[in-house]
UniProtKB/TrEMBL annotation:
Metabolic or biological pathway: Amino-acid biosynthesis; L-leucine biosynthesis; L-leucine from 3-methyl-2-oxobutanoate: step 2/4
Name the record gives this protein: 3-isopropylmalate dehydratase small subunit
InterPro entries with a match to the protein in the record: 3-IsopropMal_deHydase_ssu (IPR004431), Aconitase/3IPM_dehydase_swvl (IPR015928), AconitaseA/IPMdHydase_ssu_swvl (IPR000573), IPMI_Swivel (IPR033940), LeuD (IPR050075)
Positions of the Aconitase A/isopropylmalate dehydratase small subunit swivel domain: 1-117
Alphabetized HAMAP family for the sequence: LeuD_type1
Gene name, Swiss-Prot/TrEMBL: leuD
Annotated organism of origin: Alloacidobacterium dinghuense
Pfam families noted in UniProt: Aconitase_C (PF00694)
GO terms for biological process, alphabetical: L-leucine biosynthetic process
Length: 198
């Protein structure tokens, strides 16, 4: 997983509440078992509308999505995080997130930032009205700012922060203890005679 430290990007505004996981990645695309290839289906139904935010050339290559409260609600599907990540979003800012989506996003390298509704509305308005509107996000300092005077502090769970800074998903985190796991396995095989030896 790619470490997340600092990010500067154009902001895509998605001013909708209760965006559920079936809107993020519709169920008909959940047949794949790989984590990749979902980006082209992100918000599939809404993208049929040429005026949908993500279809607009001004938001091309955006890595920051700003949206309204309760983002990621609905059924549990890690594919929603995979689709956002595969499309290129590395950070989502909202007043609140659904719990399971929150966990899935963090495990897939997406920084979720919770800000008060007034601050999120300011970002939504600026991103909609200002061409090439960018935010600067620093996970190291837990700060956000733009070039027009907006500044905010945020906080995230210390363990999630560590994993994002180090680029560790669950497998990467486990592999940091590979030597200890090998030592335990060797000791276990020598200690218990019922364990078949390789």
């Amino acid at each position: 997983m790619q470490p997340f430290r600092k990010l500067t990007s154009v902001v895509t505004p998605l001013d909708r509440v209760n965006v559920d996981t079936d809107q993020i990645i519709p169920k008909q695309f959940l047949k794949r078992i790989e984590r990749t290839g979902y980006g082209e289906f992100l918000f599939f139904d809404w993208r049929q509308d040429p005026n949908f935010e993500i279809n607009q050339p001004r938001y091309k290559d955006s890595q920051i999505l700003v949206t309204a409260k309760n983002f990621g609600c609905g059924s549990s599907r890690e594919h929603a995080a995979w689709a956002l990540s595969d499309y290129g979003f590395r950070c989502v800012i909202a007043p609140s997130f659904a719990d399971i989506f929150h966990s899935n996003a963090g495990k897939n390298g997406i920084l979720l930032i919770t800000l008060p509704e007034e601050q999120v509305q300011t970002l939504l308005d600026r991103a909609a009205k200002t061409e090439n509107y960018k935010l600067h996000v620093s996970l190291e300092d837990e700060t956000i700012h733009d070039d027009h005077g907006f500044e905010a502090k945020f906080s995230i769970d210390p363990f999630r922060r560590y994993c994002l800074l180090e680029g560790l998903d669950d497998i990467g985190l486990t592999l940091r203890h590979a030597a200890a796991l090998d030592a335990f396995e060797t000791q276990h095989n020598e200690k218990f005679w019922l364990t078949p030896r390789a």
